[in-house]
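Section handout 9: paired folding examples.
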Amino acid sequence: SRILTNQEMAGSSVRQIWTDPEDGNLYAFVVLSKDSVNRALGEIAKSQIQQEIDKGEKNLGNALQNLDKAVAESK
C-alpha cells in the first residue's frame, strides 16, 4: 500500500538491497513484524474513519442550512 510505504515502521528491518544495473532502480527486501503491520493498519483505519466522520458532519451542516432556508422561504 502506498500509505504504508511512506511511513517508517518500528519493527521493520532491511534484509537485502539490490540495484538494477539496467535502470538503476533500487529494490529493498524488508521484513515487517505482524504487530507492526497491524498497528500501522489500525492507525490508517482510524484516520480514514475520522475523515469520513468529518465529511459527514460537513454534509449534515450544509443539509441543515438548506433545510432552514427552505422552511424560512415556505412561510
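Moving on to protein 2 of 2.
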Amino acid sequence: MYQTLKLSDGYPGAEGRQRALYIADEFDRARGRDTAYHASHALHSLNDHVSKAQLTICVQSAEEIARSIEAATAHVLSLFTDRLERARAALALNKAEVIARRWSQDRESGDTAVGRNDLRQVLWLRNCCHNLSLLDDIEEFHSMRSRDARIGRQTERLFRLPRD
C-alpha cells in the first residue's frame, strides 16, 4: 500500500503526503504480524512529524491515517491484558486520530496545551508498544538459542562414533 512519492513530483505537499502514506501503511501493517513493532513505528512517526516538522498534509491524507488507526485499534488493544492500560491505549489511539486530523489544519491552531497533552498520550502508547516489541525480540532470541542448542545436541548424538 505504501506509495513512494519523490519530492520532485512537482506538487505542493509531496513530502508531507509521502510521510502520511508511510504512517498509514505502518498502522495497516500493525493489523498483521508484529503489531507492537509497527504500531510503535507509526506512532513515533506521527508524533515526530506533527511536533517537529513544518510539513502539512491534506485532509485526504489525514483521513487515510485516521482510517488506518481505526482499523488497527482492535489489534493494538489486544496487546494489553490490563483493563486500565487497554482503556488508556484506546484513548491514546483516539488522540492519534485527532492529531492526524489536526496535522492537516493550520499549524498555529495545534500548538495548545491540549494538543501537547494529546502528543504525550500518543508518546505513552508508542513507548508501551516499543517495549512490547523489545520483549518479543528478547523472547525470540532466547527461543532461537534454545532451538540451536537442541539441534546441536541432536546432531552430536547422531554423529557420535561407536567406541571400540
